[in-house]
Amino acid sequence: MSRTGGRAVHEGRRAVGRRLAAKGIRTGLLVAAMLAAGGCGSAGVLVPPSGDPVWGASTGAGFPAPVTPQAFQRASEAGIGYVRFAVGQSRVQPTGPADWNDALWTQVIAQAAALGLRPLVQLGWPPAWNSSAPPGTPAEEVIFYPPRDEGAWRAFVARFVGQYPQVLHWEVWNEPDLLGAWRGTPQQYAYWLQVTAQAVRGANPRARVVLGGLALGGRRLDPDFLEDILGDPQYPAGPNFDVMNVHLYRPEEMAARMDAVRSTLARFGVGDRPIWVTETGYPSDPAEQAAKGFTDPRYQGPQGQAQWLRDHLPALRALGAATVFWFKLHDSDANPEARTYGLLDQAAQPKPAYDAYREVIRGTP
């Protein structure tokens, strides 16, 4: 979508940016004060409705893996409530609308349910036959474009959601505010969010639609994405999602970004939406920590990862996150940029962060 609204809107957004910069000055102070106090207390913590879990774990690229059953077992033993994973149309219907490959997902969802884990399933990623990618797009990139055929997309979503009535949370794409992850415009995302929400709710009226987790950072970020989709004149996003969803990794930015999201939702009349943080995390490998510039002596090596978790997951709850997911459940070379962020190693054996997460979960009121 081309930017509209003229100079006044542009200047208004620049003012918002200046306010965010000012908030950033106090962000580190707020989180530091929480940590210095030895915790976050209960002030500002949201209690999810109807006994919904507070804690979850996200999976990464290469899911499911051979260790997925063991990893799910470990997650259940730790008291983790949600597991988040992606299901692309490209993996269910790779060759055409008559194709349907659901056995893998039936097995994964059954494994989760048997262990008391609630899936948060991400939908998106159309195959080449249903991608709007322009001619000449590399084959591995066509999945990042919006769908081409609305009827085929609606049919996929309705059938898949209807097949798993026990799954009550469906996320619509992932990090659509990153230009590499969503190769469409904000207006196109708003449109396909509406289409997807209608299909999800039609297939399961009990289901809740979760906005695609916003990165809120990165070199290829669209900083106006949330405002654009909420204010879209044709397809305003507000009625089409039940849960706001963000990704927060840097402590010095957490408070400012939570404040900005909350104020933006309120400005567009959807301030009642719970905010989930479906990705936050920190690596365990010293080399990966050094490569990312993580030099704080408190957070070095596997024990440092565990301490980071103990410090910052409760902090996110205190900042108003209703539910928080650790990224990721287990290590994997399939995510080279986040190889050792797992609670478990590549063999699904617990790392110190796993024990720390279990302690945090057990200490949650």
Layout of helices and strands:
Blueprint: H1 6-36, E1 55-58, H2 68-78, E2 82-88, H3 89-92, H4 103-114, E3 118-124, H5 150-163, E4 169-172, H6 186-203, E5 208-211, H7 225-230, E6 244-247, H8 251-267, E7 275-280, H9 286-291, H10 301-318, E8 323-327, H11 352-362
Parallel strand pairs: 1-2, 1-8, 2-3, 3-4, 4-5, 6-7, 7-8
Helix pairs in contact: 1-8, 5-6, 10-11
Walk me through what this model shows.
- The model is unreliable at 1-47 (pLDDT under 50).
- The longest helix has 31 residues, at 6-36.
- With 365 residues, the chain is an alpha/beta fold.
- The protein is globular.
- It has eleven helices and eight strands.
- Helix 1 packs across helix 8, helix 5 packs across helix 6 (186-203) and helix 10 (301-318) runs parallel beside helix 11 (352-362).
- It has a single domain (7-362), classed as Alpha-Beta Barrel (TIM Barrel).
- The N and C termini lie far apart (44 Å).
